[in-house]
Write a structure and sequence with these properties.
The chain folds into 2 domains: about 150 residues, Up-down Bundle (Methane Monooxygenase Hydroxylase, Chain G, domain 1); about 325 residues, Orthogonal Bundle (Neurolysin, domain 3). The chain contains 21 helices and 3 strands. The chain binds zinc ion. The site of zinc ion has 4 residues, from helix 11 and helix 12.
């Protein structure tokens, strides 16, 4: 006997609820492992994580899930579903189809391989030994190529990887937007290097107490409207944000004793991710839509707060006083505007995560071009160090002497996360486009920053972006917020205006 569609919908919701429960439990465990779990807990905890992830994968790919999403997609039933249920069915069906194309044993082997590869990568990076990591990298690429074939794709094989992080994104679109951005970034970078007006940054590297840094991070988060009754701030080597549900969105930062900018901008960045997750509409709680819509849109929010707010001149005209008071004796003879120029210094460098706002995108483009070539069959894994160095010389004019500062610097490939890097620059482009809109929309945006009125900004973003969670696709979000599709011109214009002023280039 066939079940009524309302029963099927109930079954579907229960399945999703279970999956979300596993996901939340896993989220807490990962957070714990990365923040304060005793060293000896790691082995046992990893095996628990393995069991729970396996159980979650089983639910996601179960016959029952296949049956209900199929049934609920039938036209006459589909018509009767509300927007949330439709979108949930769509998401789960996509995930189901994608996951069931990979045999369970191949998937499990891949998970084991990447977890081994991550620890080999750590050692290899430590020793700056690329050949040590190479056999693992080769295997990961082979698996990924197999998965791409099983998933299927249109156009370039790399599109199958992009779709995991930025649904709808393709190499054609990326080539175009990155091409335009690069054409305007590279000459600007040359003008900046030639400018005699280089900012003084000495006061950014003094001795800063951890407690003072923690307090200041806390204060800035409060100013941004981060809700401490629905989150907390901890410390970890690599800062991150984790959204368990809108009532529990945790962030971490890292305090470097001799570098004030690191904790400051890590906190604001992760705070931006957290505001997104804290302000998703409560009626999406417990659904698969209760998260950011894509890595790129998520990154647009962290970058918006970090760069458009936290690295802006009006923001520091307001908050520099507080910074001076929070770190007695450290900034007594510094002016707010000098501080603003210092935190925006442009310096081509080898390390992506330490890059400034302007050169950052070039780091991303290099990784994108290499990944695309790997999966397009034009580049072999063994050729990566050489190709890496050639591109760094060409785009940034710097060369890594050690693989640790070159091809081995990021963990992404060890984790099998090919296709992820472009999200970072997409985030910058989305953020700049949204910045243009918010400035037109909220009269006197700079005035708000200068008066420390950050809540209206958070509310604007909530109204247009945060509350929708995954109800809208990334392309829908950018269209709905700004009235046009992704356009790299806004980022290029913003960077040009900002850095011409800072470096006094006419
Ligand atoms: Zn981020």
């Amino acid at each position: 006997m066939q079940h009524s569609w309302k029963d099927e919908l109930e079954t579907f919701r229960q399945l999703v609820k279970k999956m979300k429960a596993y996901e939340e439990a896993l989220g807490v465990m990962y957070w714990d492992l990365r923040t304060g779990a005793p060293r000896q807990s790691v082995e046992g905890r990893s095996s628990v994580i393995g069991v729970l992830s396996g159980a979650m994968f089983k639910l996601q790919t179960s016959e029952e899930m296949g049956r209900v999403v199929q049934r609920l997609s039938e036209e006459d039933i589909w018509k009767q579903l509300d927007q949330t249920d439709r979108k949930m069915v769509e998401e789960c069906q996509k995930e189901y189809v994608r996951s069931t194309k990979i045999p369970q044993d191949r998937y499990e082997q891949f998970v084991v391989l990447t977890s081994q590869a991550e620890s080999v990568w750590e050692d290899a990076k430590e020793r700056s030994d690329f050949p040590m990591f190479l056999p693992y990298l080769k295997k990961i690429i082979t698996y990924t190529k197999e998965f791409i074939e099983r998933w299927g794709y249109e156009g370039h094989p790399y599109n199958a990887l992009l779709d995991q992080y930025e649904p709808g994104m393709t190499t054609d679109k990326l080539d175009e937007v990155f091409g335009q951005l690069r054409k305007r970034t590279v000459p600007l970078l040359q003008e900046i290097a030639a400018s005699p007006h280089q900012p003084d940054t000495a006061f950014l590297s003094q001795d800063y107490g951890k407690e003072e840094q923690r307090k200041f991070s806390h204060y800035i988060l409060e100013q941004m409207g981060y809700d401490f009754t629905a989150g907390r701030l901890d410390e970890s080597v690599h800062p991150f944000a984790t959204g368990l549900n809108p009532g529990d969105v945790r962030i971490t930062t890292s305090f470097r004793p001799d570098d004030i900018s690191f904790s400051l901008f890590s906190t604001i960045h992760e705070g931006g991710h957290a505001l997104y997750e804290q302000n998703i509409a409560r009626d999406l709680m417990g659904t698969v839509l209760c998260t950011g819509t894509s890595m790129g849109i998520h990154e647009s929010q962290s970058r918006f707060w970090e760069n458009k707010v936290g690295r802006s001149q009006p923001f520091w005209r307001r908050y520099f006083r507080e910074l001076q008071q929070a770190f007695p004796g450290k900034f007594d003879h510094v002016q707010a505007d000098d501080f603003y120029r210092a935190i925006n210094i442009v310096q081509p460098s080898l390390i992506r995560i330490e890059a400034d706002e302007l050169t950052y995108n070039l780091h991303v483009m290099i990784r994108y071009e290499l990944e695309k070539a790997l999966f397009g069959g034009e580049l072999q894994a063994a050729e990566l160090p050489e190709a890496w160095n050639a591109k760094y010389e060409e785009y940034l004019g710097v060369k890594a002497d050690r693989a640790a500062e070159g091809v081995l610097q990021d963990v992404h490939w060890a984790g099998g996360a090919f296709g992820y890097f472009p999200s970072y620059s997409l985030g910058n482009m989305y953020a700049a486009q949204m910045y243009e809109t918010i400035r037109n929309d909220l009269s006197d945006f700079d005035g708000l920053l200068e008066r420390g009125e950050l809540i209206p900004i958070k509310d604007w973003l909530t109204e247009r972006i945060y509350r929708f969670g995954k109800l809208l696709t990334p392309a829908e979000v950018i269209q709905h917020v700004t009235g046009e599709p992704l356009n790299p011109r806004y980022l290029a214009d913003y960077l040009e205006a900002k850095y011409r002023a800072i470096y006094r280039i006419d």
